[in-house]
């Protein structure tokens, strides 16, 4: 291998984290996104002799390969929702939990993105945003992400998607209108000061470990949303949230936690006391913290998600 080809491989690898974020936004699946990033890098490596850098930057060229790989993967595939995108909220926190047999939106471990991607990129990775873009057509999704998230020009986007500039602008406008209809609250995208986020999460986790529902409710917004894929049940509002947590803690009051982060948001793994001793992994919980409180808690109970975050199955 020549120094030139080695350098080209390194230049490709430098783009892996942002390509992973891009494919994840498009697909809503970490596993699928990782596969397509690998495919993108392999295709680029095999086509390296045909890339001369005169028509497009390496970054734009890689995004062209990755985006079209995503479009092919999305052909005929159903969107990946969260429970709140499927049905109305549940009114009875004591009702049986119902498992939905669908491919759910998955969280993205921040550890896979390398260095801090910045507030704007973190905002475009939030679960609420990624869930909302799942409502768009595949090309509308690509146009919106390329233009509004990645800041490619209309001409660059047209080149990536093999569309005309007017067609890109039309697709972008339709996507923006659809996204506005789907509703991504501004609070979900606004970031309070980091120290405020840490303080709220510290208090929430401490209250959770104590099974203190009253203390938890004090940290929530009035219209907080709680959802728990793969269960289709979801709850809206502080009182419904509290009533459900009363039910959860009636079954176990002894919990431990491990902090992590996902989708640019604070998260933690919850472990419940096991009959045989120690604590068994129960859920991964991703929190949205706004200036008025915790507005969203998305709770995952899925072995594939646990493995992606390298969570230990037990704590002593």
Textual characterization of the structure:
By secondary structure, this protein is of the alpha+beta class. It is built from 14 helices and seven strands. It has helices spanning 3-13, 16-27, 30-46, 58-74, 119-125, 127-133, 138-149, 154-161, 165-182, 186-189, 194-209, 213-218, 238-251, 303-308; strands at 220-227, 234-236, 255-262, 265-273, 279-290, 293-300, 314-315. Strands 1, 2, 3, 4, 5, 6 and 7 form a seven-stranded mixed sheet that branches. A hairpin with a 6-residue loop joins strand 1 and strand 2. Helix 2 (16-27) runs parallel beside helix 4 (58-74), helix 3 (30-46) packs across helix 4 (58-74) and helix 4 crosses helix 8 (154-161). The longest helix has 18 residues, at 165-182. The mean pLDDT is 91.
Quick tags:
7-stranded mixed beta sheet; globular; alpha+beta; about 325 residues
Compile the SSE list and pairings:
Blueprint: H1 3-13, H2 16-27, H3 30-46, H4 58-74, H5 119-125, H6 127-133, H7 138-149, H8 154-161, H9 165-182, H10 186-189, H11 194-209, H12 213-218, E1 220-227, E2 234-236, H13 238-251, E3 255-262, E4 265-273, E5 279-290, E6 293-300, H14 303-308, E7 314-315
Parallel strand pairs: 1-6
Antiparallel strand pairs: 1-2, 3-4, 4-5, 5-6, 5-7
């Amino acid at each position: 291998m020549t120094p030139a080809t080695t350098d080209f491989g390194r230049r490709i690898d430098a783009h892996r984290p942002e390509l992973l974020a891009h494919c994840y936004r498009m697909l809503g699946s970490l596993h699928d996104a990782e596969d397509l990033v690998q495919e993108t890098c392999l295709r680029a490596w095999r086509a390296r002799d045909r890339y001369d850098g005169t028509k497009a930057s390496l970054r734009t060229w890689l995004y062209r390969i990755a985006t079209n790989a995503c479009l092919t993967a999305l052909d005929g595939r159903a969107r990946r929702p969260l429970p709140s995108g499927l049905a109305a909220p549940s009114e009875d926190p004591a009702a049986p939990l119902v498992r939905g047999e669908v491919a759910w939106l998955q969280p993205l471990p921040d550890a896979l993105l390398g260095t801090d991607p910045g507030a704007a990129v973190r905002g475009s990775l939030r679960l609420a945003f990624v869930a909302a873009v799942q409502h768009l057509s595949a090309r509308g999704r690509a146009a919106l992400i390329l233009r509004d998230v990645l800041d490619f020009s209309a001409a660059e986007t047209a080149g990536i998607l093999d569309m005309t500039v007017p067609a890109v602008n039309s697709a972008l406008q339709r996507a923006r209108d659809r996204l506005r209809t789907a509703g991504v609250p501004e609070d979900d995208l606004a970031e309070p000061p980091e120290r405020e986020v840490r303080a709220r999460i510290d208090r929430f986790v401490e209250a959770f470990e104590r099974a203190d529902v009253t203390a938890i409710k004090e940290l929530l917004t009035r219209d907080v949303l709680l959802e728990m894929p793969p269960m289709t049940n979801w709850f809206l509002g502080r009182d419904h949230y509290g009533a459900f947590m009363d039910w959860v803690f009636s079954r176990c009051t002894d919990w431990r936690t491990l902090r992590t982060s996902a989708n640019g948001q604070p998260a933690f793994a919850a472990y419940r006391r096991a009959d045989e001793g120690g604590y068994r992994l129960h859920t991964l919980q991703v929190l949205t913290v706004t200036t008025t409180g915790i507005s969203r808690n998305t709770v995952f109970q899925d072995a594939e998600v646990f493995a992606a975050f390298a969570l230990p199955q037990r704590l002593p």
